[in-house]
Amino acid sequence: MKPATSSRPTLWLVFGVILAIANWTGLLEAQTVSASAGDLVRQTVENELKSNNGAAKFMFRDQKETLHGSQTKLIVETTEATAGMLLAIDGKPLTLEQRQAEEGRLERLARDREELRKKQKTEKEDADRTMRMVKALPEAFLYERDGVEMGRLGIGAPGDELVRLRFRPNPEYDPPSRTEQVLAGMQGYILIDAGKHRVAKIDGTLVKDVAFGWGILGHLDKGGRFVVEQGQVGDGDWEITRMNLAFTGRIFLFKSLNIKTNEAFTDFRAVPPNLTFAQGVELLKKQSAELAENLPHGAASAK
């Protein structure tokens, strides 16, 4: 699983989240029946961390809904950073002028090495936080088997059996930093493909308020929830396909926090693994122009 970048999951409220577990049937079950749920979590987390280092890169569509409206973007992963081009706002395609402004913004970013380095730094910091969260999962929760489900489009691999595990906070877990602290107040369930050791879904809810820095730095309210889904998108590669976040709280005692986003990632297409940021921008421009040409006459140029 790839962590959230600045354009896709800010994986996850500021928190990167993906984990794992399992059980299996038939021959595989006979091979793993003695393994504890905790062992299965560790095995899957190890595999997710290894899979994150894969060289596969994709272009895909990102549709995000927030309290302020919706945006649709076309995203491409490159060797330098992730590039994203806005396609529509509140379901309405960009005008010609808006498309030209988007292209100009990306072209300037591709030429500005300092700004590109800042973007790389931000994405790396997001990825590092995600990895810390992932590594904490085997110790942060207690797991209990809770049946099976079948994989479907966007959740695992269609037709594969997914093991469902419920999780709750481990009372003996001591978060090493604020990054992992949110885990101490969360419970829910996760689905994994035990044969592939991949996470297909995680659904977590805060069962208590979680304070940071004794409440001075802020807190998240009880009832906050996140849902992350991951699926196979071709040739054995797995990508995040959906992320929903709903959290309220406060930052630094006085500033209210109200996050509500629903984000879907679709239409994954492989791109060259050595694609540079500048090449990615050209690919986005070409694809955006093709999409605009296929719109009903006048829709792309209407103001």
Protein described:
The two termini are 40 Å apart. The protein has one domain. The protein is globular. The chain has helices at residues 26-32, 37-51, 96-111, 113-140, 178-181, 277-293, and strands spanning 57-66, 69-77, 82-89, 92-93, 141-150, 161-169, 186-193, 198-206, 210-212, 218-220, 225-234, 237-251, 255-271. By secondary structure, it is an alpha+beta fold. Strands 1, 2, 3, 4, 5, 6, 7, 8, 9, 10, 11, 12 and 13 form a 13-stranded antiparallel sheet that branches. A hairpin with a 3-residue loop joins strand 12 and strand 13 (255-271). Helix 3 (96-111) runs antiparallel to helix 6 (277-293). The protein is built from six helices and 13 strands.
Q: What is this entry, summarized?
A:
29% of the residues lie in helices and 37% in strands.
